[in-house]
């Protein structure tokens, strides 16, 4: 079936796919799709509510008149205050670290404040005891394993990131050691001087790819703002990964549902709208002089975590917020105003920030004006995802043992390693509709870019060859008469043939279905290749449905890491499973292309950095930072760009639009489309 006709049929029947997928286990794509749909519904609902409210207020004004103040001037109505601000005074992060050295100094200062006399003694014996209790082979072996690849040069070490991470590790250890029970600490609104926290939760129904990408984004934010990141056990991540921070733990009490159900505990976690209300009230002074005089005190005073009020450049007091959410109930990412200087200045006064995410929002951290200088200094090559994944997302020994087994049995002696990941977002329905076109394009991509030889022959020829081979076995061939004489001939020619250099290619497939494996096995394993090369096909699982749980995530991470150990990657667009593989491997992948309007079988990705899918906006939404408000982030930050057109989510999230992507320094300067060398 022609591809255009095939995709047209797919679009017409997308609703049937959704109905059928309701009978299937949860998928991470459905979780993101639900976030997107709920966000759209919420926006329309908010518009209707606002319209009705405005009409009602107008009626009240016309019928009841207006109230006068004791001075004879009319007191402004609440809705008028918000609209009457002509010169909003932005509360800035004027002293935010602009260099790595300044960031290290800030982390050290926070640690000293938390411990009063610097870091408490973490002796060599304590270190040995901690490592015995928290074994992690991948901590020592991961870098070495990537260096064994023969065609993809490994990631260049980032010494600045290593230094910052070491300082963060001390801060993390210092704060957590003093907390005692996290449950008691949080519920009783306790505080430790200098210690602030982020909770990195994940959205229900998300796979390992979405979980790790969102937590990586949250962790970078935690480092920038000198916060301690804690991860609920319910995410399954602590059961899949090693403890990343020496001498401490990142796990929140397994039984503590106050963190995993923040949206159902409004008394414990302040809403996003309440936080923004504080920001607006603090930024609406018409007296620039008074605002300027009190702005610095606002940041300092806002550290009050007891629920008291404080001045912040406004004639009014606002109530301090001890714990706040970063996302609305219906979204899977921080709200647009999160990426603004004024809002970030106010977040310095919040002791706990709760994230419940499913998306890789890290590119937008580069867009925050106060964050950008230190981010550019910390990651000059902008290989952020590979550096962070390999430094803190360390697979547990249960996972690493499986990865080593696959590597030693199939990868170690291969000259070329090719990883292929295939995802059908609507399960069996998509597979039945798309697998023939997808597999044809994958094979075409392998051949076109010389990753595998072209041995494709018509099926009837294959059948004829099988018949001839069978007849020769049953009845003998013309060569059989000379069989006895061949035994007497010298074997020198055969020995020379066997001693010739042999190229070994290992193809690793990750898919819920076995169809591609069958196709490539038939083409490359069940026949002798004219080139004399050897090709092996490896696939660990083909479960058809996606399931969830610690063991499922362990096996999924095993396959992700095996993909990442490849020299070349072919991925399904929009798949976070594949995105993790390109991130760990620091690889620029090929994406299978089944768009109806194109004839290409695959296209090269723009960067090893993955796509930030369906961002709720690509513009700055910063009402108190007028120098950026309403402008496109990509206009102000040249290395933030749209994701490749092949990743337009016409299958995964209809009408979601293209996401945002971070270009590495090499991607900006290099036109080499076939290089996987950092």
Automatic annotation (TrEMBL):
Belongs to the glycosyltransferase 37 family. This is Fucosyltransferase. It comes from Sphagnum troendelagicum. It comes from the Eukaryota. The keyword Transmembrane helix applies. The chain crosses the membrane at residues 46-65. Keywords: Cell wall biogenesis/degradation, Glycoprotein, Glycosyltransferase, Membrane, Transferase, Transmembrane, Transmembrane helix.
């Amino acid at each position: 079936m022609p591809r255009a006709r095939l995709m047209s049929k797919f679009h017409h029947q997308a609703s049937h796919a959704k109905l059928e997928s309701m009978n299937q286990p949860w998928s991470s794509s459905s979780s993101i799709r639900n976030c997107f749909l709920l966000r759209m519904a919420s926006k329309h609902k908010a518009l209707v509510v606002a319209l009705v409210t405005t009409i009602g207020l107008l009626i009240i004004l016309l019928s009841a008149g207006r109230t006068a103040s004791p001075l004879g001037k009319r007191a402004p109505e609440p809705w008028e205050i918000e609209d009457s601000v002509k010169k909003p005074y932005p509360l800035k992060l004027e002293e935010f670290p602009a260099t790595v050295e300044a960031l290290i100094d800030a982390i050290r200062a926070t640690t000293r404040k938390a411990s009063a006399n610097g870091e408490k003694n973490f002796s060599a014996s304590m270190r040995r005891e901690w490592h015995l209790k928290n074994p992690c082979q991948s901590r020592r072996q991961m870098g070495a394993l990537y260096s064994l690849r023969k065609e993809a040069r490994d990631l260049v070490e980032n010494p600045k990131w290593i230094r910052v991470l070491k300082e963060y590790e001390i801060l993390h250890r210092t704060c957590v050691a003093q907390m005692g029970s996290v449950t008691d600490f949080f519920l009783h609104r306790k505080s430790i001087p200098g210690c602030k926290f982020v909770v990195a939760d994940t959205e229900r129904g998300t796979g390992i790819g979405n979980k790790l990408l969102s937590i990586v984004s949250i962790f970078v934010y935690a480092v920038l703002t000198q916060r301690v990141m804690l991860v609920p056990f319910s995410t399954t991540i602590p059961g899949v990964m090693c403890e990343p921070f020496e001498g401490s733990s990142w796990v929140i009490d397994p039984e503590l549902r106050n963190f995993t159900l923040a949206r159902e505990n409004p008394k414990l976690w302040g809403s996003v709208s309440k936080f923004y209300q504080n920001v607006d009230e603090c930024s609406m002074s018409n007296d620039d002089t008074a605002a300027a005089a009190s702005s610095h005190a606002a940041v300092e005073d806002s550290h009050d975590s007891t629920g008291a009020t404080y001045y912040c450049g406004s004639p009014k007091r606002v109530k301090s917020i001890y714990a706040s959410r970063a996302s609305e109930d219906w979204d899977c990412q921080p709200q647009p105003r999160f990426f603004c200087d004024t809002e970030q200045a106010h977040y310095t006064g919040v002791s706990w920030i709760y994230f419940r995410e499913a998306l890789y929002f890290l590119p937008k951290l580069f867009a925050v004006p106060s964050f950008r200088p230190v981010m550019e200094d910390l990651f000059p090559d902008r290989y952020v995802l590979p550096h962070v994944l390999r430094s803190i997302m360390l697979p547990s020994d249960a996972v690493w043992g499986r990865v080593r087994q696959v590597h030693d049995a199939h990868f170690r002696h291969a000259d070329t390693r090719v990883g292929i990941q295939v995802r059908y977002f609507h399960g069996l329905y998509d597979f039945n509709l798309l697998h023939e076109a997808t597999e044809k394009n994958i094979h075409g991509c392998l051949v076109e870019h010389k990753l595998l030889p072209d041995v494709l022959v018509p099926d009837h020829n294959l059948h004829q060859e099988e018949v001839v081979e069978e007849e020769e076995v049953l009845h003998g061939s013309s060569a059989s008469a000379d069989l006895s004489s061949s035994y007497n001939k010298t074997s020198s020619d055969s020995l020379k043939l066997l001693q010739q250099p042999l190229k070994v290619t290992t193809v690793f497939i990750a898919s819920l279905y076995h169809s591609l494996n069958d196709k490539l096995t038939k083409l490359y394993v069940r026949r002798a290749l004219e080139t004399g090369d050897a090709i092996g096909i490896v696939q660990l699982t083909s479960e058809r449905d996606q399931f969830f749980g610690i063991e499922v995530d362990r096996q999924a991470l095993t396959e992700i890491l095996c993909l990442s150990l490849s020299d070349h990657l072919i991925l399904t667009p929009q798949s976070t499973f594949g995105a993790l593989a390109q991130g760990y491997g620091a690889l620029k992948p090929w994406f299978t292309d089944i768009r109806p309007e194109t004839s290409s079988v695959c296209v090269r990705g723009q960067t090893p950095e993955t796509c930030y899918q369906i961002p709720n906006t690509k513009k700055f939404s910063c009402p108190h930072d007028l120098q950026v408000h309403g402008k496109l982030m990509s206009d102000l930050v040249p290395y933030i760009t749209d994701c490749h057109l092949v990743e337009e989510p016409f299958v995964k999230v209809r009408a979601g639009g293209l996401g945002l992507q971070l270009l590495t320094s090499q991607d900006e300067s290099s036109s080499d489309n076939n290089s996987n060398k950092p």
